[in-house]
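User: Please predict structures.

Assistant: First:
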Amino acid sequence: MGTTTPPRTLAEALRARGDESLAGLLRARPDLLNPVPNDITQLATRAGTRASVVRALEHLDRFALQTAEALAVAPDPAPYDTLLSLLTGDGLDDGEQRDDAGAAVTAALPDALATLREQALVWGEDERLRLVRTARELLAPSPQHPSPTGLGPTVAEATAGMSPGRLQEILASAGLPATHDPVSAVAALAALFTDRTRMAELLDTAPVEALSVLDRLVWGPPYGEVTPNPTPPVKWLRDRGLLLPVSTRTVVLPREAALHLRAGRAHRVPEPVPPVVAAVAERDPQVVDRAAAGQAFTALSTVEELLKLWNGGGPAILRAGGLSVRELKRTATALEVPEPIAAFWVELAYAAGLLAADGESDERYAPTPAYDEWLDLSAQDRWTHLATAWLPATRVPGLVGGQDAKGRALSALGPELDRSAAPEVRRRVLALFAELTPGTAPDPETLLRRLRWERPSRGSAPSGEGTDLRSRLALWTLNEAELLGITGRGALSSQARALLEEGEETAAALLAPLLPEPLDHVLLQADLTAVAPGPLERPLAATLSVLADVESKGGATVYRFTPGSVRRALDAGQAATDLHAFLAAHSRTPVPQPLSYLIDDVARRHGHLRIGAASAYVRCDDEAVLNEILADRRSTGLRLRRLAPTVLASQADPGSLLEALREMGYAPAAESAEGDVLITRAGARRTPPRTPPTPVPEGPPTPDAILLGAAVRAIRAGDTAATVIRKDPAEGGPSSTTSSGSLPRTTSAETLATVQAAAMTGSAVWIGYVNAEGAASQRVIAPVRVEGGFVTAYDHTADEVRTFALHRITGVAELAEDGT
C-alpha cells in the first residue's frame, strides 16, 4: 500500500501530478484548455493529438528538442542512461573537447527532461522514459520524413518483409552463423552492428570506397539510390547488411550501424548551452540615449509629415486591399526615404490607429480622429504611443514587395502582412538587448544564433517565405527599433528599457529632457527663405507650412516663399496685412523687403479673376485681361468664349480652369454661387472613428492564474466523477467506473429515495444526467435540498452548486466508503 506504482499510461502520469504541475502544463500548452477537458483522461488524449504535439515541439529550445529527437530513435521505453549515451556518445572516441561537451550535456539533460515532462511530451520514471506516441511518429525516421537526427530505421524495421533466404545470405557474408528463424537472424545482425569490437573487425575488411559511401550516409540523410548493377563498394556493403534495401532503387544505412559509426551519438553536435550574445561595441549610455531620442524625434516628424500629406484624403485603396506600388513610391519620394522604410512608417501609423480607410464608395486612406488627439499630446507621449503600438503589432512591413503563397505581390496596408510570431520575436530581441550592460550593442549574428537555439525552425513558415521566418523577423526588428528610436547606435536606450520594464509614464519622463524644445521664431533671409533652427511650435509650424514650401530638412529646416505658396495662404483666408504681421511677430531678423514686395504683389492680383461654375466661367472687371486670356494659345484647350464684356465661359470644370489659369501666370480666385470668394483652407479629411488593427495571436493566449486554478479544479472534479468507486445498486457491492462507462440506471422512485437520503446524511452520490441539449454526463454530487422536482446539490465535477431536474437523472448510486 505504501509503494508507488509506476504509471502505465500518460493519463496515470498526469493523474499523479500535483495541482501546481497540472497548472504548469496548461500554462505551457494553452491549446489544451479550449475547451477545458472533462477529466484527466481527456486531457491526456488531447495532449497527444497531432496538432497539439506539433505546437508543443515548436516551442521547445534546441537542446530540449534534441532530447526529444534522441528519445524518438531510442528503444521504447528507454532508460535514462541510454538517453544520456545517445546525447554524449559511448565515450570511445572522446578527446578533451568531447569530455567538456559530455559534461555540459550531463548537466543540462535533467532540466531538458523536466521541460519535456512538464509539457507532457515525456512520461514515466527514469528507468522507463516514454516519448508520447505522436511525438515519436513526428520525429522518427521514414523515407518521406527523415529523422532530424539523420538516422534511418532499425535493422528490424528495414528487414521487415525480407525473405529468409536473403537474410541467410547477409548472415553468411557478415560471418555470422546461419539460422532458419528470421527473428533470430535479425537479432544476430543487430547484435553485430552494436558490438564495437566485431563491427570494427568487419569494417577493417571493407574497401576504402565502401567506407567513403558510409561517410556520406552516416550523418544523414541515410538513404541512397542504387542502380540495378551497383558498384563493387556498394555491393560489398549491401551483401553484409550495412545497406539494406528500401525499394528496388533505394537503400538505407540501418540505425545500429550508423550509431556505431557516430560513436553512439544521435546528433553530430549536441547544444546543451544557449549561445552567448556577443557585443560589437560598448558605448556611453548617455550617447546612446541622445542618439535614440534624436531618432525618436525624427520618427514623430516623419509620421506627422506622412499624415499631413494625406490630410485631405490619401491614395485610393486597391481592389484587393492595400497601397499600390505607385502610391508607395510617391509616398517614399515625398518623405525622402527608400520605399521599404516608407512602408514601415505607413504600417506604423496604421498600427497606431492614426490611419485607416475612410469607408467611402471610392475608398481612400485618410487620418483618423485619433490623429488629432495624438497631435495634442506632448512629444514624449506621442512617441510612447507609437512604440507601444509597434511592440504587439503582428503586421510585418518587411514583407512588402515580396510574394504570397500564390505568387501575388504583398502590398503595404494589404491584408496578407500579419505574422503571429512577430510580437514574440520582437519582444525577445529587445529582452536580449536588455540583458546586456547599458550602452552595449550586440552582434546581430550571435543574436540570431541565440534566437535559433531558443526556437529552432521546424519549417512552419508560410510558403514562399523560407523556413527561417523568425530570423528575418529579428533582422527587421533591429532595423525598425533603430528607426523608431528604441535603440540608438545599436544599443537599447534607457527610455526603451523603461518602457519594457516599468511602463509608458517612466519612459516618457526619461525621454522628455532629451527632446528639443519647440521654438517660437524663425530667421527670415533676403533670398526669400526662412530658417527654422529647430522644431517649431505647432501653430507656427502649421501657418508657415501653408505660407512657404519646405526646401530642405535636417537639424534646421529651410522654408522658401514663392508666389504659389503666398497665394496658398491667401486662398486659406489670410490677408496681406495678416501675413506681414505674422512674419514680423515670429522673425528674429527684420522682414526682408523682397518678401514684403512678393506678398503685396500676389495679394494685389489675388482674386482679380473670379472662377465659377457654368460648366465654369471667368469674370473680371478688366476687359483687357480677358482679351489677353482669349488671345493666349495656351487657353485653346479650355474652349473659352465670351458671354459678356467681363465674363468668359469654359467647357472645363472650375477646378481645372483654376489650375490652368494659374499655370498661365494669373492669380484667379474661386467664387461661390453667391459671388463670394471661396476660402480654401488646408484639407482635413478624416475617417469615421476607427480602432487600431487587432494583432493576430499566435495560438491561444496564455491563461492567467485564476483561469488555471479553475481549470485544474474542474479537471480534478471531473476525474473524481469519472473514476470514483461506487456501489452497484443491484448487488450492493462496490464497483468502479470510468468516463467511458455507462450511465447508472435506477427507477424514479429509487432515484428520489437515494438523493433524499443523501441530502439528509450529507453524503455524496454518483449520478447520470442528461441536460436539455441531450448531452449525457456522469457527476458526483452532494445533495443539499430536494423539492419541486429539482435537486439542489454541490457538483464536485464543476466545483459549484447547481440545480438538477429529477426527471433528467438517469440513475443514482451511492459511493463506496473508500471512494468518497
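Second:
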Amino acid sequence: MSAVFLGVRHHSPACARLVERTVAELRPAQVLIEGPAEMNGRLDELLLGHELPIAVFSHYRDGQRAATSWAPLCDYSPEWVALRAGRAAGAQVRFIDLPAWHPAFAERTNRYADAEARYAEATERLCRRFAVDSSDALWDRLFEVEPDRGLAERLDAYFALVRGDAEADAGDRARESYMAAWVRAAVEAAGDRPVLVITGGFHQPALRALTASGVRDGTDGAGWERGADGWPVVPAPPDDAMAGSFLVPYSFRKLDAFAGYQSGMPSPGYYQQVWEAGPEAAADGLLRVVVERLRARKYPVSTSDLIAARSLAEGLTALRGHPSPARIDVLDGLAGALITDDLDRPLPWTGRGTLTAGAHPAVVEMVAACGGDRTGRLHPRTPAPPLVHDVAAQLAGLALDGGPEATYRLDLTDATDLERSRVLHRLRVLGVPGQVRTAGPTHGVDPVFTERWEAQSVLGREAALVEAGAYGATLAEAAAVALTERTRSGTARADGAAGALFDAVLCGTGGISEQLLEELSSCVRELQAAGPLGEILATALGLWRHDRVFGMARGPLLAAVIDGATDQLLWLLEGARGSSGVDFPRLRAVVAVRDAVLHAPELLSVTREVAAGIARRIAEDPQAPIDVRGAAFGLARSLGRVPGALGASGDPARVVRTVARAGADALGDWLAGLFALARDEVTGAVGSDDGHGADGAAESLIDVLDGLVSALSDEEFLSGLPALRQAFTFFPPRERDRIAARLLERRGVRGSSRSLLRTTADPLLIARARALEESVSRLLARYELDATP
C-alpha cells in the first residue's frame, strides 16, 4: 500500500486536528514525522509526561563551525500530535529528517522555520485574492476558521500552489531526498498497511514526487545508505566534532512571531485556546484578558468599551465571511474600540516581525495577551547533559545553592570566596539566570576586592543550563568555549574584546584555554578602532603589572595580548587621519601604549627606540589629527631618554607657537593630546632639549601659553575657549592651583589662586557676556548713542 502524505503548517490547530483524525481513521503501520532522526532511539524520552511547550535542542561544534538549533513542540503542533496519536494507535513512529548538525541546516536555528519567504509571491497573490493583509490572516481565512470538511484537499491545493512558485535550496533538496528514502523504506516494511507521512507543507509535493519516481538518490544525486535493519542510516557527525541533542523547556514567548520566532503560527497563547476550546471561546477569552491586562496597568477601559470591542469583532467576522471569529477579527475589533489616537505605524498583526518600540499601550497588551506566558516543564527523569550535573555539584559544594532569595557577599582575597566568584561569573558568561552581580571590580586595576551578588528571576534557568551544555561537559570548559566564540564574533572585534578579556580573568585561569589565548591575540591584531584597542591594552597591562587577586599577574595570556595590542595601536595611530576635535578614547589608547613601552618592554616586539621614532613621525605629520599630534609629541618626550627622539622639533615652545598659528581651537586640541600624555610639561622647564630657551633662561610652557592666549583678540579667545578649557581638564585640582599661582606670579598679583579657579559663573558664559557687552558698545558708538548723561 502506498504512503499517505499530509502537508501541514507547524503549530497549526487545524492541521493538528487533521493529523489526529487521520491517524484514527487510517490506523497506519508507520507514522513518519518531520523531525531529527537521531532522536528515534529516544522517543520514550519525548513521551515521559512533560508539560509543553518543550523543544529538542541540538548542538554541533568542530574546528570550523559551531551550530545550535531547536525543534519546538507544543500541544497543538501537528508533529507532537502525530507522535502521541501514532503511539496510541499502535503504529511505529519515526522521525525522518536529517540531524540538526548536518550542513543542510547551515545558518538555520529553527528546524521548523518555514519556507514562507521563498513562496511569498504566491501567498501575496492569494492575499490580494481574499483581501487580507498578511499570510497569517490568509491562513486563518482558509483553514483555521473554516469547517474541517475538505481540509486535507484544501491543504494539498494550497501547498501545491505555493511550492510551484518556489525554488528549493540545496539544503531543502538534501533533506527531501533523505526523507524520501525513509518513506520508501517504510512502504516496503509496511506491506499492505498504510504509511502516514507528516511534514511541512512546503516539502509535501517534492516528497510525493520523489517517492513516486522510485529514484533512490534524490534530485541532488546523493544516495542514502541503509542499515542492516533496512532503514536509512542516520548520518553521524565527524569524529573530531562534538554534537548532541537534549530536551529543553520552551515558552510561548519563544514561539511567538511577535518576539522574533521564524516558523508556523503566531500568537501561541491564542491558538492554544483555539486548540482546547475552539475559535469562539478563544475570541471571548482574548477580549477578556486584554481588558484585564489594560486595567491592571491603569489604562482606562470601560464596560462600554468592552461591549463595543465585542460588537466590532462580531461585525468584522460577519463582514469578512468568516464562519467563526478569526484572530484578526478580535484584534481589529479591540483596536477599533480602544484606540482613539492616530497611529504612526501599521498594526503589527497586518504583517510579521517583532513588535517595535513605541507601540501603543493597547497594542502592546493585545500582542502580549495573544502570546501568552506559558513555560514548559520537563519530567524529572529527563536526561540532561553532563554540564547540568557538574553545575549542581559545584553549587552545592561551594554553598551557592541557597535558593531564589539568596544574596552573596564575597571577599576576593579569600580563596574560597574567589572560587565562588569564578563559578558565578562562569554561569553569567553562559547566560544562565539566577544571580546578578551588583557590586565588584569593573576592570583589571579597579582597587575593589569584594563582590555582591543578588538573586534574580530563575525563569528559563533549566533550559539555559541544557543549552549551555553545548559548550562543554564542565562549567570551566563551557565558559572558556563560550568566551572563545564571543571573542571570535564580529561584535567582540568591534568593541567587546576588552570585556571578553576581563570576563576571562573573572572566570579564572582554569577556564582560559589555549584556543581562547589564540583568539584574543588574533583579535587585537585585527581591530581597526584605536579606542577599543586601547581599552584592551590598558586592561591587560594593568592586570599583568598589578593583579594579586585573580592570579593573572605576569600571565602568558596577558603578555600575548599586550604585545599584539601595542603593535597594532602604533600602526593605527601612525595611519590616523581626521579633522579637528578631540577623540578621548584614542588619547587613552596612546597613554596605554606609553605605559606598555615604559613598564613592559620585555613583552613587546617593538623596541623603545622604534616607538619613539613612530611618535616623532606622527608629531611632525601635518595630515595627522591635531590631538594625536599633541599626544605623539607627549609620547616622544616620555620616551625622551632615547637619543634623537625629538630632533629639531623637540622644543615645546617652538612647537606650541607653530600650532597656535592655526588658531586657538587647534591649539586647544593639540594641548589636550599633550596633556593626556605629559602634564608635567606645563609646570616644568620646557625650553629646548637642554631645558632652556633661546636666550638661555628657563622657560615654562605655561609662560609660552600665557603669552599666546593674552595676544588673542576677543573673538579668537571666545572661539578657542571651549577647546582650551577642555585641554586643562586633564589636570587634577592641585595641579590647577599651581598653574593659577604661576599666572598670578607672572602678573605680580598677590592673592589666592582660587580666585582664578572658582569664578561666580561659568567662565565661558562670562566670556560670552563680555563679548556681547563689547558688541553692544560698538553698536552704540556707531550711532553716537554712547554719551554718558
